[in-house]
Amino acid sequence: xxxxxxxxxxxxxxxxxxxxxxxxxxxxxxxxxxxxxxxxxxxxxxxxxxxxxxxxxxxxxxxxxxxxxxxxxxxxxxxxxxxxxxxxxxxxxxxxxxxxxxxxxxxxxxxxxxxxxxxxxxxxxxxxxxxxxxxxxxxxxxxxxxxxxxxxxxxxxxxxxxxxxxxxxxxxxxxxxxxxxxxxxxxxxxx
Length: 191
Description:
Elements: E1 2-6, H1 9-12, H2 15-28, E2 39-45, E3 48-54, E4 58-60, H3 61-70, H4 77-96, E5 117-120, E6 125-127, H5 132-139, H6 146-149, H7 154-157, H8 164-180
């Protein structure tokens, strides 16, 4: 079973965006870890570009946090720690990947947010959108939702080159959000 994600035409209209997306999704397709939703293909049908990835039977962390906030309850420290540990396990795997020649692949997600972390009905935590997240953030930051921007590392928000530390920052921002119900910073300036 797959999930098909159609990409917005305004993003894929740019040849530079499509080239970057193909590169990033190609790297993401080489990831195979229990905490990373498998990416299978990037394809095109007419003018619509789409990504085929593993179907995760569950909900995005954002939906769960919304329900928790609505009920005026907090995520327990144990749950927050579990979610962050599982996200970190997937990220550590991706960050440590090497190519056939033993060279680091330099895979960075670049957009760890409550929308890119899924909690499955069976209790798995999966990071989604490897390849998509970094490309959208790098090439089209003006099109990234304000709620997502508040989870990103300042260098990512400023459009600067990011490394694994950006993902680590975002996991910390996720932990802060789960434990306090508030984003780590309110503005979108990256400070």
